[in-house]
Specification:
Blueprint lengths: L3 H26 L6 E14 L5 E11 L6 E7 L12 E6 L11 E4 L8 H20 L2 H16 L2
Parallel strand pairs: 3-5
Antiparallel strand pairs: 1-2, 1-4, 2-3, 4-5
Helix pairs in contact: 1-2
Length: 159
């Protein structure tokens, strides 16, 4: 039957697929919600170098809502370049929807061009997870074992 490692891998991948698919569906269905607009101002770039030596940056700053409520600090700007030579400059028009929230305040804001595509990344991750799960089930032989087990069970029950 299934090894413990294979079963643990399947469970982790299944949780990943269900979680990211849920986020994707929630964000996709929330596209009709109103956008909370405001301005993002960069305060802290978070740059790192990968194994190949390439530098990429995440942009953190203060988001000030248009409605005049208090500014929110340590918000990530998603929608610009990761290139360290291309940071967001000045006040950038950004927003979020309630369906994008993981907490009471936004952790990420998007520019006007990307606000309607916040669902695509989790959808892609879910799709890749399904493909990987399917590949592993067939590659590790568990699909064939499951089919043989069902055939033996049917033969015993007389169906």
């Amino acid at each position: 039957m299934l090894t413990v490692l294979a079963l643990a891998t399947y469970v982790v991948l299944l949780v990943l697929v269900i979680g990211t698919a849920t986020v994707a569906v929630s964000r996709y269905s929330g596209r009709d919600e109103p956008v909370h607009w405001g301005s993002f101002r960069l305060t802290e770039p978070d740059c790192s170098r990968d194994r190949s030596g390439e530098v990429s940056c995440l942009w953190y700053g203060t988001w000030t809502p248009d409605d005049g409520s208090r500014p929110i600090r340590d918000v990530e700007y998603d929608g610009g370049s990761l290139d360290p030579e291309d940071p967001p400059v000045g006040d950038v028009r950004t927003g979020y929807r309630d369906s994008d929230l993981l907490d009471a305040e936004p952790g990420t804001v998007w520019n006007a061009d990307d606000i309607d595509s916040t669902w695509t990344t989790p959808a892609i991750v879910a799709g890749v997870g399904v493909l990987l799960l399917t590949f592993l089930i067939f590659d590790w032989g568990d699909a064939a074992r499951l089919r043989r087990w069902r055939q033996r069970r049917r033969a015993k029950s007389g169906r």
